[in-house]
Write a structure and sequence with these properties.
This protein has 11 helices and 23 strands. It is α+β, with helices and mostly antiparallel strands and 517 residues long. Strands 9, 10, 12, 13, 14, 15, 17, 18 and 23 form a 9-stranded antiparallel beta sheet that branches. It has a 4-stranded antiparallel beta sheet with strand order 19-20-21-22, with no helix packed on it.
Length: 517
């Protein structure tokens, strides 16, 4: 078959779509224009050719008709392309994954970088390969800033809000091995700050699923499993919150990385995620798909009667708050210079490639480094973890140190560095200003599950975990992180030098920070 008509159509379609770009200016950032809806028109009819007795193809010539004839043969009516405006956190490969196309098939009226972040509201023309595929609604449920621990959470007092509602949560207490007795509000705040999930969202989920915030649970199941995760090993509020936060992160960062494009429901249904959704909406859609069959899920995500309606009732219009802080990744965002998190001249091992920043699943934003030692396992170490950049300590305790690089004292704004498994002895204190190369503390196994002494290191920007092998790759003293086939695998590369992530401290894992880096 002759392919020229197809090529002509694609060229005309792209030119047509590009001509739309100059006229599409009525768009607010944080919202996404829906796919352009036009009636597909066939630009031509493919007429058959006849063979001569000698076997040569001959085009039959006929007089011009006086009436419009009935088309003969198949007609080609392709779907018109999508016109999509990029959102915060988008990159060309990820957008291509969302739309089911190759990056090379995406065009724009402005130059597009093949790597790195795309500026928000960049217009893209994308072939429509999703025609006929069952998809989720394109309606956005919540802005990204209401899902992650973003600047919109600054000034929100969880204790005050919970006490004012007077529900079951205000009287709840549980014992945590890491900190002792906590009340319900403290459990919510602790889960929010550790997972970097917005506390308003966790409270709204508790209210929607069990009535804990403004009333009382109506049955024993809601009392024991307030977020609907039925597991005998997760019957406390904090364990339920940890599970919920993990599901939200799987959805949010799966969309961010392009690895999540479908929802799978308990009843066996499968649904493609609409390609113009934002990460915050996908986080919620994924979360509720873990517990609800398809028909139930449709009601839950309905903004008129489902979860979004309850959220707005509890906390007002989330889009108004978002307008003051989004896009979370602004135009031109780059990683500041960061050094390897240990002192020059010391041999350390790259013990973990990109893996979850918090919990067992979620954002593959963290790297692990371990000091060399003659003993394996959890041993005291005299090696020092250092500040990769100057900043203020905004959190320290239970093995964690968070360094705020903009120095405003808020973990929800700008660049923040998380150091995990920092020993209590000699650990830097909250409020301290630390210069680059300033000592943070010693590596250990404190603060969570660990098979050996090391430091777990991750980045956040405006409360969002930044993927280690993403559009803003984790770069330390010029070494660039690359993910492997599975979490914890991967490499660090600098020029033609390669260091491989392994937990056993073999020679090819060793890395030395040179003086002056």
């Amino acid at each position: 078959m002759n392919d020229k008509p197809t090529l002509v159509w694609r060229g005309l379609a792209v030119l047509l779509a590009l001509s739309w770009l100059s006229g599409c200016t009525d768009s607010l950032w944080g919202t996404v224009d829906p796919p352009v809806s036009v009636t597909p028109q066939a630009f031509w009819t493919l007429a058959p050719t006849l063979a001569s007795p000698q076997g040569e193809e001959t085009v039959v010539s006929t007089p011009l008709p006086t009436e419009t004839p009935t088309p003969v043969g198949p007609t080609f009516t392709p779907e018109p392309p999508f016109l999509y405006y990029t959102q915060s956190g988008d990159s060309l490969p990820v957008v291509a994954a969302h739309f089911g196309v190759e990056p090379s098939e995406i065009s724009s009226s402005v130059p597009l970088p093949s790597t790195g972040l795309l500026d928000p509201l960049t217009p893209l023309v994308i072939p429509n390969r999703l025609g006929g595929v069952a998809r989720t609604p394109s309606t956005q449920m919540l802005p990204d800033s209401e899902v992650v621990y973003s600047p919109t959470s600054i000034g929100f007092d969880v204790e005050e809000y919970v006490a004012a509602q007077g529900g079951y949560l205000s009287t709840y207490r549980e014992y945590l091995a890491s900190v002792g007795w906590v009340d319900g509000a403290q459990a919510v705040q602790k889960s929010a700050i550790e997972s970097s999930i917005n506390p308003r969202l966790l409270l709204a989920l508790l209210e929607y699923q069990s009535g804990w915030v403004r009333g009382q649970p109506s049955n024993l199941s809601q009392t024991d499993y307030p977020l609907g995760h039925v597991d005998l090993m997760a019957r406390t509020l904090f364990q339920q919150l940890a599970w919920a936060s993990e599901q939200l992160m799987v959805g949010y960062y799966g969309w961010r990385s392009g690895s999540l494009t479908e929802l799978h429901f308990p009843d066996g249904s499968t649904l493609r995620l609409a390609p113009d959704l934002n990460a915050g909406t996908v986080a919620l859609m994924y979360y509720f798909s873990q517990q609800n069959d398809y028909e139930e899920w449709l009601l839950v995500v309905d903004p008129r009667v489902g979860f979004p309606a309850v959220y707005a009732e509890m906390f007002g219009d989330p889009w108004l708050r978002a307008a003051a802080v989004e896009p979370l990744f602004p135009v031109g965002l780059t990683q500041p210079y960061l050094s390897l998190p240990f002192e020059p001249g010391r041999v350390w091992s790259f013990s973990g490639g990109p893996h979850p920043a918090w919990n067992r699943q979620g954002a593959l934003a963290a790297l692990d480094f371990a000091p060399t030692s003659t003993e394996s396992g959890c041993q005291e170490s005299g090696a020092w973890i250092i500040a990769s950049a100057p900043g203020r300590v905004v959190r320290a305790g239970n093995g964690v140190v968070v360094l705020d690089l903009d120095g405003d004292g808020y973990e929800q704004t700008g660049w923040n560095l998380l150091y995990m498994h920092v020993a209590t002895v000699d650990r830097v204190q909250v409020g301290a200003w630390v210069e680059a190369d300033g000592r943070i503390g010693h590596p250990s196994c404190e603060g969570g599950m660990a098979t050996g002494t090391h430091v777990h290191f991750a980045r956040k920007y405006n409360g969002e975990w930044v993927l280690a092998d993403g559009p803003l790759p984790f770069t330390l003293s010029g070494w660039v992180a690359h993910a492997g086939a599975a979490p914890y695998q991967g490499t660090l590369r600098r020029g033609d030098q390669v260091v491989i992530a392994r937990t056993n401290g073999m020679y090819d894992t060793q890395i030395v920070r040179q003086s002056g880096e």
